[in-house]
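User: what does the whole thing look like in 3D?
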Amino acid sequence: MENIGDSVIRKEALEKVTGKAKYTHDERTKGMFYAKKVISPYAHAKMTAKDTSEARKVKGVRAVITGENLPLIGEEVRDRPPIATDKVRYHGEVVALVVADTPEVAKRAANLIHVSYQPLPTVQSPSHAIEANAPLVHENVAEYEKDEGIEPIPKSNISNHTKIRKGDIEKGWRESEVTVDESFSFSPSDHTAMETRSAKAEIKANGSVVIDTSSQAPFMVKKLMNDYFGIEVGKVIVNTPLVGGGYGGKASVQQEILAYIASKAVGGRQVEVFYSREEDMITAPCHIGLDAKVKLGATKEGTLKVAEIVYLFDGGAYSDKAIHLSRAGAVDCTGPYKIDHVKCDSYSVYTNHPYPAPYRGFSHSEVLFAFERTMDILAKKLHIDPLQLREKNAILPGHTTPTQVRLNRSTIGHVPKCIEKVKKLINWDEGELVEVNDRIVRAKGVSCLWKTSTIPTDSTSGAILTFNEDGTVNLMSGVVEIGTATKTVLAQMVADRLRIDVRDVHVRMKVDTQTTPEHWKTVASRGTFMAGRAALAAADDALTQLKKIASTILRARVDDLDVGNGRVFLREEPSVGLEFKDIAYGYTYPNGNAIGGQIIGRGNYILRHLTELDPETGKGNPGPEWSVGAQAIEVEFDRRDYTYKMLRAASVIDVGKVLNEKSARGQVTGAMSMGLAFGGRETFVFDEQARVLNPRLRTYRPIHYGEHPEYIVEFVETPHIDAPYGARGAGEQGLLGMPAALGNALSTAVGVPLRQLPLTPELIWRTKEGIGE
Amino acid sequence: MTKVAVTLNVNGEESEVLIRPADTLLDVLRENLGLTGSKPGCLNGDCGACTVIVGKKPMKSCLMLAIEAVDQNVTTIEGLTDATVQRAFVEHFAFQCGYCTPGFIMNVHSLKENHPEADGETIKSWMDSNICRCTGYEEIEAAVKSVLYGGQEHHKR
Ligand code: FES
Ligand code: FES
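Assistant: Here's the predicted 3D structure for the full assembly of 930 residues, as structure tokens:
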């Protein structure tokens, strides 16, 4: 029997290798309509006219929507028109929708819509956005409806400010003998899931809105449809089949809103909104950019004393998740180190860039790039080995985080162990820099990482187990299968708890918000923890019911019974017992009398003791635990042409407990690959009018086969006591330190500090030779 | 636009379909024949998610008109059953979200048919046409090598 820790093959594997797996855009119905977007070619412009007359004449066009009379939307600040009406604020913004019988007709008509634009000066970066005379992306930011605690600064581009104040900054600087003051920046980029976004919406006669969507957050869609349009939550039904990659990008809600608006315009008929690759990259929310300033102070011996940090997050044209992202960046504003005095000001800032969605790691890889690069620069100044500096200051149980949470042995993983292991794996003692010949050098770089999940304090997860007649079980959870194999891991847990074969746990892959118990969002590596706790609770509930009915039939006390191999039996005499199949659907006595009924186990979970952050100091408990790790990379750098090859990349992640060996490794190497792509090659390239010049996979080029380094992955297992089997998150951690480690390795190779991403040969050459853009 | 009736041979079955001459093979496979295993990832030849086999060669079905496929044998992912490549992808955990998988499998299957002894460089140049965003390619590499005799794992034996 395969069990916890084993490499159980994912439940939907056969569907996926035969082409039978269904994703949102694969399901179509006869008579469905198709919507095509008209998007803005400008990043900032006033719209003076929208001429739709030609488009409306095209045969087969059912509606042309230009966006008037729609509410403003957005998750924490309602600052976004679903379809822009007066002005556009980013390149790719939707300015009209055409609904037609076929995609071809919709496209032809969309091309006939003429919008007149009057270009406005653009805001090019967060640093530019806060300059005194910067153009305003939103003229009246303070007037928007917003959540409590969000404080946009009137007549500015700042949508929110999170403050972290821990200890006494002045004292920290007094105690510091060596200081560094560094700045870093990178532009927004993209998630680039292979499946582009799409959604279908239909309005039923009774007013129910049925939405099919490629989303990581179907339950959020349900909630937001209620918030934005006042539709009763019970009348919003959101279906999500398998999702072709998300990485956070599909946790934002956009395509569903457009589909709903389109359906409404055609009397509730089903309409599909499908995103082309270009639209998926620039119209849909992207990966956030950042301008950062990090000041660190330490004693001569290398004890960190103080950190003073400013993060300007590139919130793009609309706030949506940007504010939350900037808050998460503040929560873990340093690396995983003991620092008594911390001051951080994290801002979410409007620019004329595409607006951000969460991205794997939720601001942590971004912040760690800035912080961990600074650690290396500090180490050089101190003449201390960079790994040793990290080890010396590693955060431990008993220490406090920037939001002043006192950590214990359960709530933080083991940083020193991770450092020690990665040191061996990358052969650190060989030296950071090895000269191969007069042209080639090999260099190594490291980074530590940590992360907690700043999810809402009241996020819930539920699970239902129903038994089949043959004693097997069906598992229903609101976790979306986006590729992480979470539902297979949940099945492993249920099988383990019920002591049955994992093959006897059937998993429902599709999420349907009407019949599937809620799981807040499939993000933040919380699937195995929260949904796992719920699934285990459901299994316990089912066991109680099985034992109860068995106790009647066997005429034995419930606590004299045990389970195993699909049976309930007497502890003392295991041969006396009943098979699950005989009691899972009720029990029938020989004379025909029956008792019981189908066994249905239910369980739920809610995180304990989370609090909001104090607005003045940031003090508060943001998440359930901090998972940690240490990463390293070795590169081969060519000093003549500034190109480099990634040789080996190593990750040591404290996952608490490995639940599925091969899946866990795959999550880590996949995340490492993504982190190296973010660090080394991917960015939107903007022109001087903030237009994205490379919104396609030929010019925005993810890592291809054969371009990856050798991966070395090891795990540390420090249990998180609250989590099933002690497991910590593992889906994001592999990404977090990679950009910083790459930056550190290349800075060592080149001999000058690199402060921007992505680390392309051109950037390295410009930095080394002091050549501006 | 006027539609034309053509006969396509897909996965060994002949089907008559009514298409626009401008329809891509990918569109017709998905919309007319309901074979949605081939995926639209970019519709621009950049990602390989739509790869099928036409004749004996892998082809990005988003770059080919359906009308060009008349009189040719087209094999899609639905046309493979229990192929070595499919089994290898399962055994080696060579996918996560699975969206790139049909394209990769068709490409590898065709590589195996055309160059059963492909060396590392040949493998790399063939695989370069597909993108996987979930994995770090390590497992795909292991799966590919396990089905090709030129693959390292077999050399070692
Ligand atoms: S969809 Fe054909 S190559 Fe991307
Ligand atoms: S498995 Fe998701 S893109 Fe390859």
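In plain terms: The two ends of chain B are 59 Å apart (CA to CA). Strands of chain B lie at 4-10, 13-19, 51-54, 57-60, 73-75.
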